[in-house]
């Protein structure tokens, strides 16, 4: 059976744990190495992945490309506008062709339906590099970062942590919701009305045993939490920028709110960030911000995701 990486809700606790452990181990093994150096165990030798983008990307693009090189494989990057996909060729036809050329495909898609169509017709593993619905690679990096931070501070396991999402109920939050049951962290959510997380996703996670409290005020969400997490107020593809900029200011994370969290609380943001909107510059640049480690960990976590897809 082909192992696609489409949603964290598809993965078991053991799968998630194995990917995180591998990511930590690979990161540690590369300390001090040039970034282009091959890993000691280049698990992807002889493999080529296609990296396809329907939307802009900095982190996903560079982290996948470098990660694949470190694993001994190679990549081909294309935007959909370079491809017939951008002129109306279906995802189903595209992937039946690409499956003949490459060993795996990472797709960043406008619509989650395009990703599932690709996976349905693919003969090779498909990895989700963000859709309008979720962003599972990001959350693997975020969980890895939370574990690193915990090791350096309070020492808690993920299952003992309280994570607080303050801001838009968007694709990044969906992936935190999707892994909550398996990993056991408590998730608190504070989003303005009209911008709350997908109700079906929330109910499905709760039915699996996730400890999630939604519809909180920012103050309720932040109090004593181990991490405050947010994202931009206007995601790629959102067309209601003015309404959003009017609705979100009470949800800005500032130093006053961060002080109400646990003393060692981490501030996370997937980037790109907009200082003065979802958080103040003081919080973003402050000592509790782990955003650069979080960005670096995209690469380590995705290498482990790729290896998991290939059973390596
Ligand atoms: N966080 C993230 O996915 O960044 P990019 O959009 O730059 O890939
Ligand atoms: N929610 C953001 C994440 C960007 C990495 C977006 O979809 O634009």
UniProtKB/TrEMBL annotation:
Provide the reaction this enzyme catalyses.
Answer: carbamoyl phosphate + L-ornithine = L-citrulline + phosphate + H(+)
Enumerate the spans annotated as Aspartate/ornithine carbamoyltransferase Asp/Orn-binding domain: 160-308
Task: Tell me which residues bind L-ornithine.
Answer: 171, 231, 235-236
Principal subcellular localisation of the protein? cytoplasm
Q: Which GO terms describe its biological process?
A: citrulline biosynthetic process; L-arginine biosynthetic process via ornithine
What keywords tag this UniProt record? Cytoplasm, Transferase
Q: Which InterPro entries does UniProt cross-reference here?
A: Asp/Orn_carbamoyltranf_P-bd (IPR006132), Asp/Orn_carbamoylTrfase (IPR006130), Asp/Orn_carbamoylTrfase_sf (IPR036901), Asp_carbamoyltransf_Asp/Orn-bd (IPR006131), Orn/put_carbamltrans (IPR002292), OTCase_ArgI (IPR024904)
**Sequence positions that bind carbamoyl phosphate:** 57-60, 84, 108, 135-138, 270-271, 298
Which PROSITE patterns does this chain map to?
CARBAMOYLTRANSFERASE
The residue ranges of the Aspartate/ornithine carbamoyltransferase carbamoyl-P binding domain are 3-148
Q: Does the keyword Transferase apply?
A: yes
To which pathway does this protein belong?
Amino-acid biosynthesis; L-arginine biosynthesis; L-arginine from L-ornithine and carbamoyl phosphate: step 1/3
Cellular component, GO, one term: cytoplasm
Could you tell me the EC number(s) of this protein? 2.1.3.3
Localized where? Answer: Cytoplasm
Named from the GO MF annotations, one term is: amino acid binding
Query: Which purpose does this protein serve, as stated in its record?
Result: Reversibly catalyzes the transfer of the carbamoyl group from carbamoyl phosphate (CP) to the N(epsilon) atom of ornithine (ORN) to produce L-citrulline.
Q: Which family does it belong to?
A: Belongs to the aspartate/ornithine carbamoyltransferase superfamily. OTCase family.
Question: Per its UniProt record, what NCBIfam families does this chain match?
Answer: orni_carb_tr, PRK00779.1
The protein here is known as: Ornithine carbamoyltransferase
Q: Which organism is it from?
A: Litorimonas taeanensis
